[in-house]
Amino acid sequence: MPISMSSASLPIFRTMLSNLSHILDKGVAHAQVRKFDPQVLAADRLAPDMLPLTRQIQIACDAAKNGVARLSGVQAPRFEDNETTFEELKARIAKTLAWLDTVPPAQLDGTEDKEITFPVGRETTRTMKGEAYLKHWVLPNLFFHVTTAYAILRHNGVELGKSDYLVGPQ
Amino acid sequence: MPISMSSASLPIFRTMLSNLSHILDKGVAHAQVRKFDPQVLAADRLAPDMLPLTRQIQIACDAAKNGVARLSGVQAPRFEDNETTFEELKARIAKTLAWLDTVPPAQLDGTEDKEITFPVGRETTRTMKGEAYLKHWVLPNLFFHVTTAYAILRHNGVELGKSDYLVGPQ
Questions:
Q1: Each residue of B93-109: pLDDT tens digit?
Q2: I need a labelling partner for A160 at 20 to 30 A (CA). Which of A18, A167, B65, B108 fits?
Q3: Cβ distance A64 to A140 under 8 Å?
Q4: Which of B46, B112, B157 shows the shortest C-beta gap to A151?
């Protein structure tokens, strides 16, 4: 049976956000073992003009949340982007996962050709059909920010392997 | 119309591998402007026990190539993993893209429930159904290695933005 829009989105979003939460746990555990404040990791970035770990988590959550909201037409809650601690970041992921669970998959199905207009930067928008929007915008963005969060922690010595990135309910 | 297995894979693979080639171009251009040998970037990694840029490119190519080969049953060419220069890495991507173009999409379609057994590490294998294999193994791996390649270059000062990662024929 061909893949529905809900099946091409929700299970991937759930798995990757759950894995992201697991990756954060490993960051906290590493800081505890090495006896440093995990906040150092939360504020770290791979380049001075790249976003820090906190923003990577917020944007990964929003990639999934806004993608599902725009496709399904179900209004998503607005989050304040005020998380600074690992505990708050994990709560942000949990809130996003909980909201995803409230969206009826049937609201996503059949949106392959729905015109989706979304902001790109602060002043422009872009319009894509639902299927292209999912495949060429939402998914690449979600994976980008999950992988970058992983990379920031890995670069700081956190013991992570590919299995931490791929782990989770599948 | 629900998404076919070919549509859920080939266009994403083509876009992301093309973007990866574009990202490498920016790495070379940066090295030329700063007058250093681009080989320094090719051998760089984000952590001492992480894979260098060369391997990120090779594995990104193989994620797409092996994924399509296993799903479609079309035999893929074997590449030697002997690339060291940016020119060779770009040729590896081009060879992979050229091979993807030879695979009839119809050979991928209908493989949602096909049992796919694939190596995980050197001594074990895993079996997943085609749709889950694509969504929870091939796609996450492809995006992981493209993003990590981007991160290695970005960490080294190459002027890359999200649009370089998302650019390309969509």
A1: 999 999 999 999 999 99
A2: B65
A3: no
A4: B46
Residue at A170 is within a domain: no
pLDDT tens by residue, B71-95: 999 999 999 999 999 999 999 999 9
CATH number of the domain to which B51 belongs: 1.20.120.450
Q: How far is B149 from chain A (nearest CA, A)?
A: 11
Residues present in chain B in total = 170
Asked if the structure places residue B67 within a domain, the reply is yes
Asked if ipTM goes beyond 0.90, one says yes
How far apart, in Å, are the Cα atoms of A113 and each of A48, A110, B34, B88, B129?
40, 8, 46, 39, 27
Residue B4 located in a structural domain:
no
State the pTM of this model: 0.97
Which residues constitute the domain of residue B19?
A: 10-165
Q: How many domains does chain B have?
A: 1
Under an 8 A CB cutoff, do A3 and B5 touch? yes
How many whole angstroms separate alpha carbon A115 and alpha carbon A124? 16
Q: Please classify residue A140 by burial: count the beta carbons closer than 10 Å to its beta carbon, then call 0-12 exposed, 13-18 middle and 19+ buried.
A: buried
A147 → closest Cβ in B2, B131, B143: B143
Give a yes or no: residue B51 inside a domain: yes
